[in-house]
Amino acid sequence: MPELSLQKALNLALQHACEDDDRVLIFGEDVGTLGGVFRVTDGLRAKFGEDRVFDTPLAESAIMGMAVGLAMHGWRPVPEIQFDGFSYPAVDQIVNQMARMHYRSRGVLNMPITLRLPSFGGIRAPEHHSESLEALFAHVPGLKVVSPSTPSEGYHLLRQAIADPDPVIFLEPKPRYWQRESFDPTEPVEVLPPGTSRVVREGKHATLVAWGAMVARCKQVAELAAEDGVELEVLDLRWLKPIDTDGLAASVAKTRRAVVVHEAPLTAGLGGEVSALVTERCFGDLRAPVQRVTGYDVPVPSGELEDQYLPSVDRILTAVQTTLEYRRG
Amino acid sequence: MAEVTFPLPDLGEGLISARVLEWLVAEGDWVERNAPLVELETTKSAVEIPSPQSGRVARLHVAEDAELEVGESLVTFTVSDDQAGIVGAVPEERKPQRRVRLTLPED
């Protein structure tokens, strides 16, 4: 079975989506000639031509406005905004147009748009290149939000997102683009349905809930914890809107302790929502309050300072120990 | 390995095309980022373009003396997968360092 990077798996997903459906259009800054800043759209213009894979001016609001117009007329746009932090100029189009068109038209118009957004930190990039916007978009009614953590997840989740009749914000964990995995997209595998989470490591003492780039770090933490005889379950949430409440509750009901890990700042981050859901569903089972390990409440720092900002192995281990030690007063 | 293709950049002044005067590299050459890549002539001036990427030159898309438009493919590099990206650095995969040890509760 070939080894594929996440980057290449996403490229294949786009290629197969274009082959399967003539209405799929790919556009954004540098996606055509250059093949995308992370090579995700590499070679697609040569395969499908300039009418289906094309470069746009540096104007994010125009990219998303055009996506809305094209979707209204039956196309399935897959626009790219080069970096998470660059999506702010397009928020009006995303929130006021794309997210509510289905509702506003009383269900007449669908918005089958997949916005690809290289997201999260970890590559020591300059400012505006390493944001975590999942809470912002998950808060907007009408949008679905998803983030893959591995090449195979990337392939299948992107295919599902493009097939979805609703607008999907697809957050690609850019520090994982170069991660490789044995993966053959032509092999039939069990593909989990949209809106579900995945247990990526079984455990019994506590559940680490994560998504995107933080799944890999939580897997590292679980390996270290195992050295100490602590078996941590790692739940990859995958879909951040809608959240798989049943999967979340099932895992926490089993382990009875939960630590939510994300890169976004703590205050009003998605970890608060996950924590509330766990508390609503598992209050009687919980042996400790849900812990959150997150980025700090500061603007995402650039360059090497990112390393200090992102949840570290030790910060996560400390939160785990806090839940293990907790005693009701 | 991955391939990265660079198009003719917009050289400013509203120019829409340029002519290749001289390639300063050959196919198969290893080029460092910022090293001289090609000399181009526009209607305004002759300019030397530095390489935007380090890598091995896989293909020169245009012959010397030929004209190409802004946005058309100029050169393709072969780069290792962990270089293929324009912004930021590929995170190192290494065993995580830890200071915190865990202890299970007694009950």
Automatic annotation (TrEMBL), chain A:
Single Gene Ontology MF annotation: magnesium ion binding
Signal peptide: none
CDD domains registered for this protein in UniProt: TPP_PYR_E1-PDHc-beta_like
Entry-linked Pfam families: Transket_pyr, Transketolase_C
Domain Transketolase-like pyrimidine-binding: 4-179
Keywords of the record: Oxidoreductase, Pyruvate, Thiamine pyrophosphate
UniProt cofactor(s): thiamine diphosphate
InterPro entries: THDP-binding, Transketo_C/PFOR_II, Transketolase-like_Pyr-bd, Transketolase_C
Protein name per its UniProtKB record: Pyruvate dehydrogenase E1 component beta subunit
Native source organism of the sequence: Saccharopolyspora antimicrobica
From TrEMBL, chain B:
Cofactor names: (R)-lipoate
Superkingdom to which the source organism belongs: Bacteria
GO MF term (any one): acetyltransferase activity
Keywords, sorted A to Z: Acyltransferase, Lipoyl, Pyruvate, Transferase
InterPro entries: 2-oxoA_DH_lipoyl-BS, 2-oxoacid_DH_E2_comp, Biotin_lipoyl, Single_hybrid_motif
Stored SUPFAM superfamilies: Single hybrid motif
Cellular compartments per GO CC: cytoplasm
Residue span(s) of domain Lipoyl-binding: 3-78
Protein's name according to its UniProt entry: Pyruvate dehydrogenase E2 component (Dihydrolipoamide acetyltransferase)
